[in-house]
Specification:
Mean pLDDT of chain B: 91
Largest interface: A-B, 24 and 22 residues
Distance between the termini of chain B: 35 Å
Structural class of chain B: mainly beta
Oligomer: heterodimer
Shape of chain A: globular
Number of helices of chain A: 0
Largest sheet of chain B: 7 strands, mixed
Strand content of chain A: over 45%
Number of strands of chain B: 11
Number of helices of chain B: 0
Strand content of chain B: over 45%
Mean pLDDT of chain A: 95
Number of strands of chain A: 11
Distance between the termini of chain A: 40 Å
Helix content of chain B: under 10%
Order of helices and strands of chain A: EEEEEEEEEEE
Radius of gyration of chain A: 13 Å
Order of helices and strands of chain B: EEEEEEEEEEE
Largest sheet of chain A: 6 strands, mixed
Helix content of chain A: under 10%
Low-confidence stretches of chain A: none
Low-confidence stretches of chain B: none
Chain lengths: 109, 115
């Protein structure tokens, strides 16, 4: 079966750095997305990775290792508004999007 | 402003009743999707449509129906056959289904509850 694993919940301090991991086992791989979702709101696109390596976009970076079936989202200089769920999603070999359950990130002052 | 509009924001269903959730987009996207989100679970695909007058079942299509008569609109009907409809329903659209075109943009969601 196809599976995406993320930690259920993480806590971090304002101003700090946090890394949210995502591991996947899918039938084929055609890319990986990260989305942010505030409670009761729509998910919003953050990043996508196709090739191995790090993609940086402001305070957020996303890393991919296809050989390890692994990605992480790195958030720097955390702000209270970063409190949200972070969803990892993989496009499998049939171009179907498989979603993880999301990681709830709690930021404390 | 371009975007995806879902309505209503909250919806209540009585036993044996069909209800329809609206989804409209003005992004000129070809593909549209309906997802169901339950606590502690990933988004699950109900139906998707890549082109007008065509749609395919997703992983959990039973008890749901859709139509795609216009490019901009993709309404979802939750029928009485869906025995556990309480969930957060999200509509999304994308320019296509190939990798680089499959960045999906979401509406604000409809929260459906059973009375």
């Amino acid at each position: 079966g196809q599976n995406i694993d993320q930690p259920t919940e993480m806590t971090a301090t304002e101003g700090a750095i946090v890394q949210i991991n995502c591991t996947y086992q899918t039938s084929g791989f055609n890319g990986l997305f990260w989305y942010q979702q505030h409670a009761g709101e729509a998910p919003t696109f953050l990043s996508y990775n196709v090739l191995d390596g790090l993609e940086e976009k402001g305070r957020f970076s996303s890393f991919l290792s296809r050989s390890k079936g692994y990605s992480y989202l790195l958030l720097k200089e955390l702000q209270m508004k970063d409190s949200a769920s972070y969803l990892c999603a993989v496009i499998d070999g049939n171009y179907q999007l498989i979603w993880g359950a999301g990681t709830k990130l709690i930021i404390k002052p | 402003d371009g975007g995806i509009t879902q309505s209503p924001k909250y919806l209540f269903r009585k036993e044996g009743q069909n209800v329809t959730l609206s989804c409209e987009q003005n992004l000129n996207h070809d593909a549209m999707y309906w997802y169901r989100q339950d606590p502690g679970q990933g988004l699950r695909l109900i139906y998707y449509s890549q082109i007008v007058n065509d749609f395919q079942k997703g992983d959990i299509a039973e008890g749901y129906s859709v139509s795609r008569e216009k490019k901009e609109s993709f309404p979802l009907t939750v029928t009485s056959a869906q025995k556990n409809p309480t969930a957060f329903y999200l509509c999304a659209s994308s320019t296509g289904t190939e990798l680089t075109k499959n960045i999906q943009y979401f509406g604000a969601g409809t929260r459906l509850s059973v009375l």
